[in-house]
Amino acid sequence: MAIRGIGIDLIRVDRLRLLLERWGARFEQRVFTRNEREDCSRRKDYAGCLALRFSAKEAFAKALGTGLRNPVTWQDIEVSNDSLGKPTISLSESALRFCREHNITSWHLSLTDDGDYGAAVVVLEGPSAAPGTSPEGEAEP
User: Fold this and answer.
1) Model confidence pLDDT, tens digit, residues 38-52
2) Is the peptide bond before 131 cis (omega within 30 degrees of 0)?
């Protein structure tokens, strides 16, 4: 496996709180999936939980190098936790297709927070390039 991209994002939790106060449900529904909103509603710090998910989505888009626009938008990336609490990313079918087209077959997410700030790191992986080919699998000149 080869690293296909690395993304990092840092967010101030109070910045996200201000966005929630200013834009409310309109902002939440645009940026977060229903599952993310429901999961965070069960947490003690709703805004802090959403801030980490916001940061994870930003880090994933930075690792892709596309930003959060077509073909991978806010709703195409869903952040959740597995049964042990490890953060995971699930993708929509269109985002998954985009990743496959770019030889991205797996990704890893790490989240951290200290109350005032949250941060996310995403690493994208894919098959190693064959000798004499570019990372995208095309023959080198």
Assistant:
1) 999 999 999 999 999
2) no
Q: What does the pLDDT read at residue 135?
A: 56
Identify which of 42, 55, 44, 43 has the alpha carbon closest to the alpha carbon of residue 15. 55
Four-CA torsion 126, 128, 133, 134, nearest 10 degrees: 50
The DSSP code sequence of 97-117 is: HHHHHTT--EEEEEEEE-SSE
Q: What is the DSSP letter of 43?
A: S
Q: Using CA atoms, how far apart are residues 117 and 55, in angstroms rounded to an integer? A: 10
The answer on whether 39 is annotated among ligand-binding residues is no
For 109, the token pair is 């997410």
Q: Residue 115's pLDDT is what?
A: 86
Does residue 116 have a known ligand-binding role? no
Q: Are residues 109 and 120 in contact, defined by beta-carbon separation less than 8 angstroms?
A: yes
Mind listing the pLDDT tens digit for each residue in 11-39?
999 999 999 999 999 999 999 999 999 99
* Mean pLDDT computed over every residue of the chain: 92
Domain 2-126: assigned CATH number = 3.90.470.20
